[in-house]
Amino acid sequence: MATTKNKRAVGRPRRFDPDQAVAIAQGLFHAKGYDRVSLADLTDALQIKPPSFYAAFGNKNGLYARVLDRYVESGSIPFSEILRDDQPVAECLKVLLEEAARRYGADPEAPGCLVLEGARCHDAEARAAAGAFHRGAQEQIRAYVAARAPEDADRIADFVGTVMVGLSAMAREGHDADRLLATARLAGQALTME
C-alpha cells in the first residue's frame, strides 16, 4: 500500500509585486495622510503579512520614501515643462499655480499634494523626506525667477510656495478644483501686477 505525503494546494503562491504595492500605498498615503495610515492598513491593502512587508520595505518610512519617489517621478506637477525660459516669468508662475489647483482638487478621495501634506506630518523621518522634495521644488521656483529677476526671487518664490501650500490645505478641507482654480487665478493676477 502506497502512502501519500501531505500535499500543498495546487497552484503557485501569489507573486508580490513591489511596484504595484508602492502604487497602492501611494493611494493610501495621499487619501489619509502619512500619520493616519497604519501598518495594518498597509498590510491589508497590500494583502501581505507584516514579515513580508518588513522584508520588502524595511518599515513604513521605507515604503513612504518609495511612494514619494514614485509621486515625484509620475504624479507631481511637471515644473520643468511649465517654468519655461521662452515665456514671461509671471505667466509661467500663473500656469504653475493653476496646474497645482487642478491637480490638488482632481480627486476628492486623495486631495492636495502628497509632498506638501507629508511635509506637515507628525513623524519626523517622514516629514524630513517629504520636506526635502518640498524644498527642492521651492528652490526650482526660486532659481527660475532668479535667472530673470534676481532681486525678486526670494519674495516671489515665497509667495508662490505659500499659495501652493494653501491650495493643498484647502483641497484637504474640501475645496473642489473649480474653487481652487479661482484662488490660483486670483494669485496669478497678483503676480502680473509686479
What does this structure look like?
The chain has 10 helices and no strands. The protein has 194 residues and is mainly α. α1 (18-32) packs across α2 (39-46).
Strand and helix layout:
Layout (H helix, E strand, L loop, with lengths): L17 H15 L6 H8 L3 H8 L2 H15 L4 H4 L6 H17 L8 H5 L5 H23 L6 H20 L4 H16 L2
Helix pairs in contact: 1-2, 1-4, 4-8, 6-9, 6-10, 8-9, 9-10
Report the sheet-strand fraction: under 5%
Based on secondary structure, the structural category is mainly alpha
Low-confidence stretches: 1-9
Please tell me how large the radius of gyration is. 21 Å
| Gross geometry | elongated
Give a count of the beta strands, DSSP E runs of length 2 or more: 0
Distance from N terminus to C terminus (CA atoms, Å) equals 94 Å
Helix content: 55-70%
**Element string (H = helix, E = strand):** HHHHHHHHHH
What is the typical, i.e. mean, pLDDT?
92
How many distinct helices? 10
Q: Describe the biggest sheet?
A: none
Short note summarizing the structure:
The protein is mainly alpha-helical and 194 residues long. It has 10 helices and no strands. Helix 9 (153-172) packs antiparallel against helix 10 (177-192).
